[in-house]
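Lecture 7 notes: from sequence to structure.

We start with a single chain of 540 residues. Read the sequence below before looking at the structure.
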Amino acid sequence: MSTFEVVGLVLGAFSGAIEACRLLREAYRRIQIARRIRIEYTDCEQTLKCQKAAFLGRLRRLLLPLPRDDIQINDLLSDPGGSIWKDRTVADHIESRLGKEKYELVMHHIQKFHYVIEILREILRLDSASLHDYLINRNSSAPYLSREWIDAQIYTVSFCNGGTSRAELFEELEQLNTRLGELLSEIDVETEYERLLTNNPDICGFWVNADTLFKTITLVWDECCKKEHLARLLLQHRTSQDTDFSMFFIKQSPSSWLSQEARITHNRRKIQQQHDTAPVVNRSSNVSFSRDNLISCICTSLRHENSEYCGYLASKNGPYYMYKESQRQGQDLKNMTIDDILRRGAGPTPSRRQRYVLSLVLASSFVQLHETPWLPASWKKSDIVFIADENSGVGFLDQPCLERELVATAPAKGKEYHQMSSLAATGNGKVEKAYRSLELLGIVLLELCFGQLLEEQKFRQAYETPGLTEIQKYAFDAAAARQWSSQVKDEAGPDFNEAVRWCLDGCRITPPEDLRREMLRRVIWPLERCHKYLFERQQV
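Now the structure, written as tokens:
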């Protein structure tokens, strides 16, 4: 018998036990004795039906998605002893989806159901033909003090005294169902995590692209650019292999301001100027470009009013093409930070959905940009800015940006560069800064969860004393955040709670080289689920 056939046996055992309980209950009812036993059999029957229903729900999760889903699954579930359970293709399909180790773990767990149900059948005498025959024929054929009569009386006494054993077995069935559900949920999360990595194979290495872009832009960010423009990078949650960047270049004057959005991409658009010459790209160490439309100064390239194409930036990874997109202008440039948005009495509180979307965007941007010049380990909440509407004073929450001074960083030598810039760095000081940086992200997620600032909470104010150093303030912030985090599950559910907990504590037990991948699994994906659940509820 194959391992998968056990699933059909368990399903059949449930059905057989329920039917036997019904027959014995009916038999006791007809002879009008042992009312307590009739009630107990009714309870046993109902409990078994509940546990079977729970098992069927989990079994459907296990069987999905099979070829010809509904038809084949219904065939399996309606015929527990049928030949389809011996069909190796069904078992192979499930094993290939779960993997050999997880498949064997699930099958071993399901075998425990069969063991418990068999014990229940024995205790309840569900397979005793002589007991059933005696109860059915009691009024006509079973003589007083016969063996059948004695067995029935012994069983009646033992049944009445066996309530504890039955309760323990039913509790064990319930625990098995609960654990099976948890196991399948864990497998679903792992499967989704693998899907996320498959669909975004370079997301954990995206920081290299971001780092290259920063260093490339600094080479053409002249003195005139520094005087005329502010440079901001739009933060975004990436769900595909899109590697484009959106930046805002903001030009200010005493009486007005103009924000020019630009998209920077490795992919050249078909809409081009007539005399553009595409650069020749060789992604090996020798890279050569055409000089036509090579950007040597950002300010100059933005002045091309008759074309959306600004030119391209030359980098060691190939050209970055820059295109102008939307513009926004006004008289008085007003910027807002997360503190400005959440501070009590400062304005309308963002909706729950806005706060959850912003949480997901910030966490995803952390994976993409952390420990690059865009988002160094020493980042602060005030680095994240929003342009505020001049009339309402409300920030455009769908456009969180990082404002950075574009200054060239000192290059590292040779291959050491990538090692020094990644979270896999082995230096204790660097690793500690990465952990503290994640803790700060955890605090921001906390504040967005509740729509309140940590500094306004009474347990943070209790730590406040004059003359604290920055290190002491940080330590008290972290301590207060851990206290506050105990309320996240009730406020936002287990997914948001998992994200916050990992940033505050879980990251410290994660090896530095695994931080980005673990953050995808423990922060990004839970926040995605949280947002998806909220969105679906609002759609109903």
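The two ends are 47 Å apart (CA to CA). Keep this in mind for problem set 3.
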